[in-house]
Amino acid sequence: MLSYRHGFHAGNFADVLKHCVQVEIISYLQKKEAPFDYIDTHAGAGSYALASDMAQKNCEYMNGIGRLFKISELPGLQNYLRLIEGLNPEGALQQYPGSPLIAAQMLGPQDKAWAFELHPSDAEKLRQNLPRGRQYQVREEDGFKGLSSLLPSRARRALVLIDPPYEQKDDYQRVVDALKLIHRKMATATVALWYPVVERRRIDALEKQLVATGIRNIELFELGIRGDAEGHGMTSAGMIVINPPWTLRGQMDQLLPQLAADLSADGGSHYRCVTLAAE
Ligand SMILES: C[S@@+](CC[C@H](N)C(=O)[O-])C[C@H]1O[C@@H](n2cnc3c(N)ncnc32)[C@H](O)[C@@H]1O
Predict the structure, then answer these.
(1) Which of 21, 223, 229, 274 is found 20 to 30 A from 241 (Cα to Cα)?
(2) H or E element: which one contains 172?
């Protein structure tokens, strides 16, 4: 059953962390002219109107992009913020981009993107929100399954973003299986996995499973706006990056303490930058 709709959450603190990491990875990949492939296994609708009923229901973006847009001077956020500003040319914050649209803003003509989205209406919106043409392929399929046929990717370089809703509890296992599959088929790919902290023990178990895979070069970046509290929804969120740009750890070491201070909900904010497996 597909009940998750990203429109309720677009632009919240977890999106800020996820998309900031995404922007920094793509910026780094673009320093070389050689093409790369972008694969988004759980793509969403691509763009979200912040005045919509969904976004206004809990106004989650207000403690995310809403706090940072046009105000934040954090150096590590500037690439990300310029991109959001570019998509809001009238100056006010009206639209928040999803991960496939962020990629589309950054990809060069030699790069290619695949976006999987299972929800029929979000898949249709995504088709409308992405540029037309063969460079961007939207697939209304299970991204965990579809991923396999794309690897190893045509270009020798790839970024795979894995961003499931974790509403189905087997998503916690499916992400580990996906990381193992990617490693087996294309060990050099950069993989960015998003996770929410709703029950801390699930993330502790996820980290242990990842370390046990033997995959090397894994960094974890986590931002919490409250202390862990089961039964209170998502209190923190993180990105686990395999084969990150070598610059990413330093950027996050600087950015996360400042973001945690700026987005704290009740004084219980925190962050983690951890090497889960060295190179
Ligand atoms: C967290 S949202 C994605 C947000 C998007 N990555 C972004 O950052 O803007 C997760 C999306 O995955 C979709 N979805 C759920 N299970 C899926 C699956 N097995 N394959 C592809 N899409 C799936 C949901 O409909 C939802 O739109």
Answers:
(1) 229
(2) helix 171-185
